[in-house]
Amino acid sequence: MTDASAAADDATGPGTTAGAAPARPATPLWLAVTIAVFFGVFYAYDVWEAVRDLVGMTLIVGDLGVSFAGIGIALLIVALIVPLVVFALAFWLGRKRGPLEQVVLFLVGYALVQAISLGLASFFGLGGIDFS
Length: 132
Prior knowledge:
Elements: H1 3-12, H2 29-64, H3 70-93, H4 99-125
Helix pairs in contact: 2-3, 2-4, 3-4
């Protein structure tokens, strides 16, 4: 070890680099909760739509006097669970990040939920499920 490297270790501490940026503090709790509640409303609307679809399709199938295929119920339950899981995942991944990163995580998660919901809706709309 040379004198120059020893002086550099003393100035920055062992195991750190001289050009490293200081760690950013996490988002304040009140701001993280505000962001989560704001996006939670959109995710909750998707959950409410999934509950409406599950109950409505069950009533329609019952009125028609046919049985509901297992894949249909499974898809409706997946449509109910996906927004909850994606919201929880976005919240968990963003808990130690800044506010902009949290907003981006919630937006990307919401886009994913919308894409999955659209795929499931088109599956039902195109006659992809046989109710017999």
